[in-house]
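Async update (no meeting this week)

Hi team, since we skipped the sync, here's where things stand on the single-chain job. The sequence we agreed to prioritize is pasted below, unchanged from the tracker. I ran it this morning and attached the output directly underneath so nobody has to dig for it. Comments welcome in thread, and please keep replies under the output.
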Amino acid sequence: MNSRPVQDIAARLISRAVPSLTALSLLATPLFAQEETSTFAVLGKAGIIGLFIMLLSIVALAVIIENFVSLNRDKLAPPELIDEVQALFDEGQYQEAMELCENEPSFFTNVAGAGVAKIGHSFSVIEQSISEMGDEESIRLHQKIGWLSLIANIAPMMGLLGTVSGMVKAFNEIASSGGQANPADLAKGISEALLTTLLGLIVAIPTTAAFAFLRNRLVKTVIEVGAIVEDLFERFRPENA
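Output:
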């Protein structure tokens, strides 16, 4: 089975990522306005919670790239496999079609294979088997992108946790100094509070957008593949049904 060249996929990912990266760089510009401020210094000011948010961003990026590659239309339902299965059906070679589905696992072949395995039974049994396998495969695929939804929800909550933590530190400084705290001492806690909030939003916003895009594309593909499989087995429907 031929697959799309990795270079083409990478180029598409880069082209989609450039606008988001540009926007994020504009958001991050105030953080690096001063020459003495480095990336590590900013992360240091964000504290341990900020570090966890950055780790979440790495996980989110990995999941996004993996899903962009594995959940595209040609991976879930390779056109050449659809043509081969249809040709075998036209020739009545259902055993060969079953072997092809088993040897070339994908969303299409898994759903079609479930129907082929029930050939010889009533059409309602075939239809139910296809429907059940389609639902099972759809749930499995949605679980893959579900991690992005989880990260998109956790990131701003961790940012809020960092905000509360930073403000607690600032007020503790005021309390311990008897209300005579040095503004420079207060700035550390306030800086942590604001930075963690900013980092949480920077991670959550593009992750939410990626989740919505992947979910919509997956739903569209599942519907298209379902229609193809339905047409494939339509020949087994009784004429009086």
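Quick observations from my side:
The mean pLDDT is 81.
The CA atoms of residues 24 and 182 lie 33 Å apart.
Reply here if anything looks off.
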